[in-house]
C-alpha cells in the first residue's frame, strides 16, 4: 500500500508520496524496468544478453554514451581507464588517518569526494564535454584502485599498485588479492564471474542511490561529490548493504543449526523486527531478472571452484524454496532479489563480507555516471521536494525559567 494523496498546505496543493513510490522524478533513456513482468534493459538491450555476451567496460560505455561501442571506441575507453588507474600518492597518506575500524564504504565515499581536491577543475559547473569525459574516465579508473585499497588497508596488508597489462576486472582482483611474497594466479572463471556481477549491478534506474546522485548533482555539485553521496545512500542495509546482511543471515542460520523454517517464521512476525534479507523489492513484484542470472552464475562459480557443497548455498536454496511456497511471501510478492545470491559468489571469490557493498558500488558506478550526465545534458532543474507541515502552529517563545 502506498500513501499518496493531494493535501493542502499553506501555499496550495501538494502531492504526498512518502518514499516516492509512485512519483517520477525525471525522464530517462538509460534503463527500462518493468517490475510486474521482471524485465530489465540497459539502453534497450536485455540484461540477460548483456550479462552473457558483454564485458563490464563495454556495458559502462553503453550506459554512459548510449550506444554499444565499436572496437576502436571500446579500446580507446578501456585504454584511457587503464592509463588513469594510479591514484595520487597523497591518497595513500590519507589512508593512515582513518581509524582502523572505519567501514570500507566510509573510506570509499570520503576518498571519491576527495578526488575533487586533486582535480579541482571538476568543480566547475560549465565544463566542456571533453573535460567531463576526463572526469568520468578518472572516476572509473581510480575508484577501482581506491576500492581495492580499502580492503588492503582493513587487512593491514601492503597496498598493490594497479597493473596496466591487465583488464579492468583482472586488475581489480590483482590489487585485492596479490601479495608481494606470493604469486597471485588470475583465474579466468573468477574474472568472468566478476564481470557478470558488475554488469548486473551497473544500473537500475531511479533507486535510492541513483536518485541521490541526481538530486545532489542537480545543485551543480561535481560528479565526484554526487557519486560520493550515492555511495553513502547505497551503504544502507535496505539498499546495497543488503548483500552483506544476506550472508550474515545465512551464517547465523548455519550457526543456529540450519533450521530455515525458524527464520521464516521470525520474518513473518512483525514484532520480531527481522526481515528475510535478500527478499522483496520496491519495484519487482515478479522475479528479479538479475537474481535468475546470479543464481546460475553462483552455481557455475561454486562448481568451478569445487565448492558446490557449500553449506551457505544449501541454506540459501532451502530458504528460497521455503519462501517461494509460503503464503506470506506469495501474498506480498516477495521474491529473492539480486543481493540474495551475489553475496554467495563474492564469498566464494574470497571477497570479505564488509567489502560486498563496495563491490556493488563499483558495479553501480557507470549507472551513477550515466544518470548524472543525462541530468546535466537535459538541463534538469534543482531537485527540491515539497512537504506537508504537521508540526506546531505559531506559539510564543517561552523563557527558560518558565519551561516545564
Ligand atoms: N521479509 C519479510 N517481510 C517483508 C520483507 C522481507 N524481506 N520485505 C517486505 N516484507 C513485508 C513487509 O513487512 C510488508 O508487510 P505488510 O504489508 O504485512 O505490512 C510488505 O512485505 C511490503 O513491504 P514494504 O516494506 O512496504 O515494501 P517496500 O517496497 O517498501 O520495501 C524492501 C522493499 C526495502 C526491499 C523490502 O522488501 C526489504 O526490506 N527487503 C529486505 C532488504 C533487502 O533485501 N534489500 C535489498 C533490496 S534490492 C537492492 O537494493 C539492490
TrEMBL record:
<dbReference type="InterPro" id="IPR019810">
    <property type="entry name" value="Citrate_synthase_AS"/>
</dbReference>
<dbReference type="GO" id="GO:0036440">
    <property type="term" value="F:citrate synthase activity"/>
</dbReference>
<comment type="similarity">
    <text>Belongs to the citrate synthase family.</text>
</comment>
<comment type="pathway">
    <text>Carbohydrate metabolism; tricarboxylic acid cycle; isocitrate from oxaloacetate: step 1/2.</text>
</comment>
<feature type="active site">
    <location>
        <position position="281"/>
    </location>
</feature>
<protein>
    <recommendedName>
        <fullName>Citrate synthase</fullName>
    </recommendedName>
</protein>
<dbReference type="GO" id="GO:0006099">
    <property type="term" value="P:tricarboxylic acid cycle"/>
</dbReference>
<dbReference type="InterPro" id="IPR016142">
    <property type="entry name" value="Citrate_synth-like_lrg_a-sub"/>
</dbReference>
<keyword id="KW-0012">Acyltransferase</keyword>
<dbReference type="InterPro" id="IPR036969">
    <property type="entry name" value="Citrate_synthase_sf"/>
</dbReference>
<keyword id="KW-0816">Tricarboxylic acid cycle</keyword>
<keyword id="KW-0808">Transferase</keyword>
<dbReference type="InterPro" id="IPR024176">
    <property type="entry name" value="Citrate_synthase_bac-typ"/>
</dbReference>
<dbReference type="InterPro" id="IPR002020">
    <property type="entry name" value="Citrate_synthase"/>
</dbReference>
<dbReference type="Pfam" id="PF00285">
    <property type="entry name" value="Citrate_synt"/>
</dbReference>
<feature type="active site">
    <location>
        <position position="339"/>
    </location>
</feature>
<dbReference type="GO" id="GO:0005737">
    <property type="term" value="C:cytoplasm"/>
</dbReference>
<dbReference type="InterPro" id="IPR010953">
    <property type="entry name" value="Citrate_synthase_typ-I"/>
</dbReference>
<dbReference type="InterPro" id="IPR016143">
    <property type="entry name" value="Citrate_synth-like_sm_a-sub"/>
</dbReference>
Amino acid at each position: 500500500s502506498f500513501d499518496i494523496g493531494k493535501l493542502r498546505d499553506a501555499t496550495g496543493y501538494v502531492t504526498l508520496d512518502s518514499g516516492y513510490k509512485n512519483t517520477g522524478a525525471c525522464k530517462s533513456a538509460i534503463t527500462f524496468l518493468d517490475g510486474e513482468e521482471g524485465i530489465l534493459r540497459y539502453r534497450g538491450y536485455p540484461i540477460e544478453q548483456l550479462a552473457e555476451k558483454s564485458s563490464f567496460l563495454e556495458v559502462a560505455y553503453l550506459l554512459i554514451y548510449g550506444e554499444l561501442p565499436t572496437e576502436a571506441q571500446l579500446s580507446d575507453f578501456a585504454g584511457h581507464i587503464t592509463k588513469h588507474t594510479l591514484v595520487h600518492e597523497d591518497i595513500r597518506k590519507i589512508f593512515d588517518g582513518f581509524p582502523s575500524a572505519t567501514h570500507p564504504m566510509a573510506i570509499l565515499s570520503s576518498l571519491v569526494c576527495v578526488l575533487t581536491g586533486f582535480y579541482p577543475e571538476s568543480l566547475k559547473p560549465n565544463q566542456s564535454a571533453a573535460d567531463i569525459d576526463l572526469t568520468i574516465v578518472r572516476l572509473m579508473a581510480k575508484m577501482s584502485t581506491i576500492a581495492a585499497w580499502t580492503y588492503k588497508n582493513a587487512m593491514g596488508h601492503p597496498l598493490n599498485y594497479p597493473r596496466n597489462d591487465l583488464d579492468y576486472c583482472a586488475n581489480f582482483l590483482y590489487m585485492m588479492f596479490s601479495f608481494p611474497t606470493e604469486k597471485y594466479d588470475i583465474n579466468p572463471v573468477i574474472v568472468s564471474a566478476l564481470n557478470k556481477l558488475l554488469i548486473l549491478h551497473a544500473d537500475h534506474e531511479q533507486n535510492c542511490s541513483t536518485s541521490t546522485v541526481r538530486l545532489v548533482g542537480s545543485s551543480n555539485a561535481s560528479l565526484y561529490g554526487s557519486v560520493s553521496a550515492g555511495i553513502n545512500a547505497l551503504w544502507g542495509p535496505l539498499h546495497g548493504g543488503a548483500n552483506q546482511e544476506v550472508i550474515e543471515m545465512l551464517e547465523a542460520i548455519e550457526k543456529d543449526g540450519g533450521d530455515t523454517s525458524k527464520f521464516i517464521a521470525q520474518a513473518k512476525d512483525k514484532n520480531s523486527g527481522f526481515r528475510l534479507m535478500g527478499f522483496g523489492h520496491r519495484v519487482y513484484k515478479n522475479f528479479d531478472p538479475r537474481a535468475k542470472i546470479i543464481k546460475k552464475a553462483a552455481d557455475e562459480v561454486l562448481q568451478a571452484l569445487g565448492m558446490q557443497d557449500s553449506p551457505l548455498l544449501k541454506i540459501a536454496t532451502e530458504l528460497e524454496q521455503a519462501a517461494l511456497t509460503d503464503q506470506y511471501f506469495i501474498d506480498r510478492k516477495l521474491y529473492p532479489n539480486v543481493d540474495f545470491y551475489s553475496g554467495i559468489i563474492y564469498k566464494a571469490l574470497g571477497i570479505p563480507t564488509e567489502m560486498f557493498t563496495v563491490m556493488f558500488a563499483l558495479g553501480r558506478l557507470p549507472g551513477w555516471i550515466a544518470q548524472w550526465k543525462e541530468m546535466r545534458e537535459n538541463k534538469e532543474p534543482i531537485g527540491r521536494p515539497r512537504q506537508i507541515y504537521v508540526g506546531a502552529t505559531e506559539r510564543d517563545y517561552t523563557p527558560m525559567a518558565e519551561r516545564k
